[in-house]
Amino acid sequence: MDEIRQYYHPDRTGMVEDVILDAIGGIIGIAIIIYWRKRFWFKKTIQTKTTE
Q1: What DSSP assignment string belongs to 23-50?
Q2: Three-state DSSP class for 12?
Q3: DSSP-assigned letter for residue 11
Q4: Higher pLDDT, 47 or 24
Q5: Phi and psi angles of residue 11, each rounded to the nearest 5 degrees, phi first
Q6: Whole-number Å distance between alpha carbons of 38 and 52
Q7: How many CB atoms lie within 10 A of CB 18?
Q8: In the 8-state DSSP scheme, what is residue 9?
Q9: Alpha-carbon distance 8 to 13, whole Å?
Q10: Is 18 left (phi over 0), alpha (psi -120 to 50) or beta?
Q11: What's the maximum distance between 2 C-alpha atoms anywhere in the chain?
């Protein structure tokens, strides 16, 4: 997305390295969210089952 915006600015150019870094950042962010949700969802499920 950022590369598209940079295309329209005369002083900026999109680079392949930027795209790769953006993709890696996105993958890391998604991995953190998945880890976080699994960790706390699992604890919540155990607590709910033990109180029933």
Answers
A1: HHHHHHHHHHHHHHHHHHHHHHHHHHHH
A2: coil
A3: T
A4: 24
A5: -90, -10
A6: 21
A7: 13
A8: S
A9: 9
A10: alpha
A11: 63
What is the token pair recorded at 22?
Answer: 């953006």
The residue to which tokens 């033990």 are assigned: 50
pTM over 0.85: no
Torsion of CA 13, 3, 5, 11, to 10 degrees: -10
**Whole-number Å distance between alpha carbons of 49 and 52:** 5
- What is the C-alpha to C-alpha distance for residues 16 and 27, in angstroms, rounded to an integer? 17
Residues 6+ apart with CB under 8 A from 4: 14
Helix (H) or strand (E) holding 18: helix 16-51
Q: Give mean pLDDT, residues 39-52.
A: 64
